[in-house]
Amino acid sequence: MSVAVRRTAYGLGAAASVFLAATVLSPSPADAAAPTSITSTVKSKYFTGGYTTITCPSGYVGTGGGVGADSTQMYVVLTEPTRNSAGRPNGWKGWVQRTNGAYGSGTIYVVCTR
């Protein structure tokens, strides 16, 4: 799979996560104390050097994310949420490595909701 196709697939997956988060987190009519709207955003950035993080905007909580490697000669070593000092997810971190042990490159995504 080409890099452009892979990036598009990851982007579509992240967009689907936003839709699902908005659908699942939408308050029911019986829940009067729940917020009336949910705002979600997907952030992404390309990185080199193997390891990177991406952070949600202020006031948002990270609800998902992921990392994609640039080629089949690379693999994802780490992909997990980052947390603030209160323990709430506020971003995503990832590490990509080449099969020869050198640092890899790729794209990292985070889905943020408030």
From TrEMBL:
<protein>
    <recommendedName>
        <fullName>Ig-like domain-containing protein</fullName>
    </recommendedName>
</protein>
<feature type="signal peptide">
    <location>
        <begin position="1"/>
        <end position="32"/>
    </location>
</feature>
<keyword id="KW-0732">Signal</keyword>
